[in-house]
Each structure stands twice: as structure tokens, then as C-alpha cells.
Write a structure and sequence with these properties.
The structure is a single chain. The protein has about 270 residues and is of the alpha+beta class. It folds into 2 domains: about 90 residues, no CATH class; about 160 residues, DNA integrity scanning protein, DisA, N-terminal domain (YojJ-like (1, 3-Layer(aba) Sandwich). The strands form 3 sheets. Strands 4-6-5-3-9-10-11 form a 7-stranded mixed sheet, sandwiched between helices. A hairpin with a 2-residue loop joins strand 10 and strand 11.
């Protein structure tokens, strides 16, 4: 349905909807990249696109040809330049509550084992770094460590993070009820302090992986025995074992998983 014309351009309701959607996408991309060098590149890219439209409208043939040549490769350049930001955007989409509702995770037993192990590790001031995989896999990181594929248990985690164990230096990655790997190497975050406290390697690694993937990370400080939980680039420190258990259950959607299981059992029984 045509609303009005601007010269040779015909404007309809569909055009307004199209512009609104594209504007929203660009705005969300800018929010993800705000404060980074990529944001400046993104603004420059938008200016080039805008200038391309102006050049076509003014029939600047040579300039239109140059800009059209650039747009032929802009998709590949966009992916290369904004790979970290695009990954963060996809992770944020994966964290959407609607998508999380359909994720099947079974970590109740894992939480019990982790909380039991972390409680003892905290008392002994043995450092630990435990990563719960939620939506996205961490195969690239798993391959840097030692594969275990073992059921989560308190005794196994205590053995892994014993300072005399060859596996204690690194992260443990847990998916559902399985320890996928130990002694995993994670990328460090650029953040070096939190709430006035200097961060060690474990805490920076926890922040780093939480910035890149949909995970929940538990950290035990080797210096103080403090228990922390990290998610989406944010850290909560000084947790008690009881509070840690509650946080893990809330963040890993244990109750939602139980509800889905109950509904499925009810359907099977009435079928």
C-alpha cells in the first residue's frame, strides 16, 4: 500500500517496517560493540553504505562503481572484522529466555557434586575453575585439555584439583552430568580487577570464557579460598556453599528442566 512518493521513490508501510527492523538490528549491533574499536569501524561502514545510496541517487557513475565493488566483498570483511562481536551477539541470542526454555539440561547431580567439592576446596584453599556448559559447546577449548568423559562426583573433582594432581592447573568443563575434560586452557579476559580486587589467572579465565560462550563458571581462590560465580562477563564473589547451590540452580534452569520432565512423564502416562 503506497503512502506517498518522494521524486521517483514510492514509500509504503512495508518500507517503514523494513527500515524499522534494519535500524533495530544496527542499533543492537552497535550496543554489542560499543566501547570497542569495532564500533568505530562499524560507524565507518554505515557511512560508506549511506554514501553509496547518495551516489546512486545523484547518478555518480564512477563513485557508484567503486562503492558497488566494495559492497561485493563487505560481507566477508564484516565477518572477519567483527568475528568476536558477532560471537557475543549469537551468545546473547542463545541466552534468550525463550530459547533457554527449550534447552534440556540435567545438572542436578552435577550441582550437588560441585558444591560438595567446592566447599572442601575452599576450606583447604585449593584453587579450582569449573565451567558449566549451558547452550553452546566448547569443543575448541575441550581439545586443549585432557578428555575424561566421566560422571561428575565430589571425589573426582577433589582429586583433579588436588595441588599434587597433574590435572589441577586449568579448568574442568562440565556438560550435563559429565566432566568432558580437565586441565583445559581458557582465554584470559582483558579485565584485571573487580570491585577493587586484583584478579588472578583463574578469575580472569572465568571472565574470559563467560564473555565468549554461554556458560556459568565457579571459581575458588587459591589465596583466600573465596568462592565466586561468573556469568556473562559479571562476577559475584564471597558466596557461601548454600548460596552457591542456589545460584547454580537458578542460573542453570534446574527447576525449568524438572518441570519439562514432569510434563513429559505426565504425557507418557496418559498416552
Amino acid at each position: 500500500m503506497e503512502l506517498f512518493k518522494i521524486g521517483f521513490l514510492s514509500v509504503s508501510i512495508t518500507d517503514f517496517i523494513d527500515i524499522a527492523i534494519v535500524s533495530f538490528i544496527f542499533y543492537r549491533l552497535y550496543l554489542v560493540m560499543r566501547g570497542t574499536i569495532a564500533a568505530q569501524i562499524f560507524v565507518g561502514l554505515l557511512l560508506i553504505i549511506a554514501f553509496s545510496f547518495v551516489a546512486q541517487a545523484m547518478h555518480l557513475q564512477v563513485m557508484s562503481w567503486i562503492l558497488r565493488t566494495l559492497t561485493d566483498i563487505w560481507v566477508i570483511a564484516f565477518i572477519v572484522l567483527f568475528q568476536p562481536e558477532l560471537r557475543r551477539l549469537l551468545v546473547l541470542i542463545g541466552r534468550n529466555p525463550v530459547i533457554q526454555f527449550f534447552l534440556k539440561i540435567n545438572v542436578e547431580d552435577s550441582i550437588e557434586g560441585v558444591v560438595g567439592a567446592v566447599t572442601e576446596l575452599s576450606k583447604k584453599k585449593h584453587g579450582a575453575l569449573i565451567v558449566f556448559v549451558r547452550a553452546t559447546g566448547l569443543r575448541t577449548f575441550v581439545e586443549t585439555g585432557t578428555r575424561l568423559e566421566a560422571l561428575v562426583s565430589r571425589s573426582l573433582l577433589l582429586s583433579i584439583f588436588n595441588p599434587k594432581s597433574p590435572l589441577h592447573d586449568g579448568a574442568v568443563i562440565i556438560k550435563d552430568r559429565m566432566i568432558e575434560a580437565a586441565r583445559v586452557t581458557l582465554n584470559l579476559s582483558a579485565i584485571t580487577s573487580w570491585d577493587g580486587h586484583n584478579l588472578g589467572t583463574r578469575h580472569r579465565a572465568a571472565l574470559g570464557i563467560s564473555e565468549q560462550a554461554d556458560v556459568v563458571v565457579v571459581v575458588v581462590s587459591e589465596e583466600t579460598g573465596t568462592i565466586s560465580i561468573v556469568e556473562n562477563g559479571a562476577m559475584t564473589r564471597n558466596l557461601t556453599p548454600a548460596l552457591l547451590k542456589k545460584e547454580l540452580r537458578d542460573r542453570l534452569n534446574v527447576e525449568a528442566e524438572r518441570s519439562l520432565t514432569s510434563v513429559w512423564k505426565l504425557v507418557k502416562n496418559t498416552a
